[in-house]
């Protein structure tokens, strides 16, 4: 039973991560609603636990529905129409494929039903073991699942490998009584999944980075050889020789004209990508370039195919890292710092509205850039901003950071602009004075609310409608599977513990992304660290005498208060080793205490699977409440979590309040 529980738990988490990753690479809407599939997964896992005891049939529906989902997404992907000039943030985008109102509900419901199967297999193991022992092996399996997916990400494994892992897991966990049933219910769906993913792997010519499905196409435009790079079906970059790029779009040379200094001993380029911006810097006389790129596959394509071979130049040093993290860790100063078209087109997994480059465009980030300039140096950024208010917002952010108006050059189509700020006003040479931000331009973003593309301090109506429908569907599904809600009433405190836990996890993911970078590895380490903290809480509860639940709730609230009071700016000022230790203690203290509370309560419940299901459904609701950060900021999520934990304590059964040990 224990090995089966570990395998089922590992498979459950692996399948959840694989679905989030794969569907987002083929359905462009999901690149900006990453936790949409996450919410469906939480709903499905919760329903799987609630279904235990209500049916003795094996969940053969799971591989069948997975095959349906994979085939639908494979044959009806949603990609960007390349004839349009749209960009996706909180505005519209012209796409080909099923509309969002159709494909998103299909994926949400199907993902929930697919994950319900492995969750049911995990849940059936729980009654066979002591409560905390079952929970312990569930956590160990989850750690194995996230470790396996992280390893495959490191190896750039394509979806075919993920499909083979799923097929093997279904084959091990689902064993019908007859060979015919096994063939029809398990083998055929798994073969369909593997075949569809194999066709994608071998025909699309894609590279799978830890962030994207990367595809490239070489062609000639106006006699100029170009390599276009698409990520997740979205046009992203073009690798083109520096001379041709400057001829076609001379604005790429504007930062070098606006910077008063003509000394380019050291240049930093953030968002180096396939290398064109690096090649331009070298052509302008840069003696050394630090090229920072977060995606190793984009760097790999540039190294192999860029016509100027900039990454082979001895004057170039490549850093595979997040740009903000690089700035926070280096002591080096530069003559010119460029943010070169850093537009990730994707979100940080597990953080509903945090893009990979979100922390690059805050006022604090630009102050950090200013601190890394040599006397007479300059900072510049350029992109196709599409919206005047967005361009003005970034210009006013540079003004706030540098203390004077920047140069703003608007050129070409799509509100392409180059924003340049010298270390002092004398260190820049503007063609004309920027008129300043208009009255309706939103203020600069901050590290607490790094939502550059959100014009107002509000939750977009699209999100509100989608989340409302998700909650409605979830209520109906829980009622259909678990029966009357009164059966879950004794576990209302466990439900609120789940809501609070997910908010803490979101705060940790975004906090560590700021402190150490929005890289996939940092993200994986945080998720693994959360599971280790939960496992440590379970082992502590199993093996040692623990304080009463009121005391542990006090520890939770104290930990939340510390996290709220300690500013990120102070943590960023610490040396990296000390920053890591301090951040781990602050982040994981409330998680550890909260899971001691959960472990003590879970061990005493009459119906373990119902209690665990209530907790998981709470986590799904917590995923919806993540979007409050768009209004109140990430730090305020700790206050929301504190209110939820107080509510959980208020709902705590009277008999449990005085219990000292489990």
UniProtKB/TrEMBL annotation:
GO terms for biological process: polyamine biosynthetic process. Keywords: Membrane, Polyamine biosynthesis, Transmembrane, Transmembrane helix. Pfam families: Spermine_synth. It comes from the Bacteria. Coiled coil: none annotated. The chain crosses the membrane at residues 30-53, 60-80, 100-122, 134-154, 183-208, 461-482, 520-538, 550-566, 578-598, 610-630, 636-656. This is Spermidine synthase. It comes from Acrocarpospora pleiomorpha.
